[in-house]
């Protein structure tokens, strides 16, 4: 039996199975894609919870995780897209 792929949440720093996390990637235009597991480029993984997103935002981890500055990255827009991704997954956004 194959081992599960593990990733670290950039918000709470817990190690979890990759399939349970939400992947956020930086796109070439300077924006981000939320819950795009096959999107190319550098990505950051978050638990499927808004508190982890808030921790990651306040710790300013996204520029480090993507290894580039994203001047157009807006907290409200990211939170809205993350919440929509949680709803698509059937996770209640708290």
For the structure shown, list the relevant keywords.
alpha+beta; Hypothetical Cytosolic Protein, Chain: A; three-stranded antiparallel sheet; 3 helices; 31% helix
Explain what the structure shows.
The radius of gyration is 13 Å and the shape is globular. The protein contains 3 helices and 5 strands, in the order E-E-E-E-E-H-H-H. By secondary structure, the chain is α+β, with helices and mostly antiparallel strands. It has one domain (6-85): Hypothetical Cytosolic Protein, Chain: A (2-Layer Sandwich). Strand 1 and strand 2 (15-17) form a beta hairpin. The strands form 2 sheets. A 3-stranded antiparallel beta sheet has the order 4-3-5.
Give a summary of the structure in a few sentences:
By secondary structure, the protein is of the alpha+beta class. Helices cover 31% and strands 19% of the residues.
Secondary-structure topology with pairs:
Layout: E1 6-8, E2 15-17, E3 22-26, E4 32-34, E5 43-46, H1 50-58, H2 62-66, H3 75-89
Antiparallel strand pairs: 1-2, 3-4, 3-5
Any idea what the shape is?
Answer: globular
From the coordinates shown, what is the CATH architecture? Answer: 2-Layer Sandwich
Q: Distance between termini? A: 35 Å
Low-confidence residue ranges: none
| CATH level 1 class label | Alpha Beta
CATH superfamily (homologous) name: YlxR-like
Number of H- or I-type helical stretches: 3
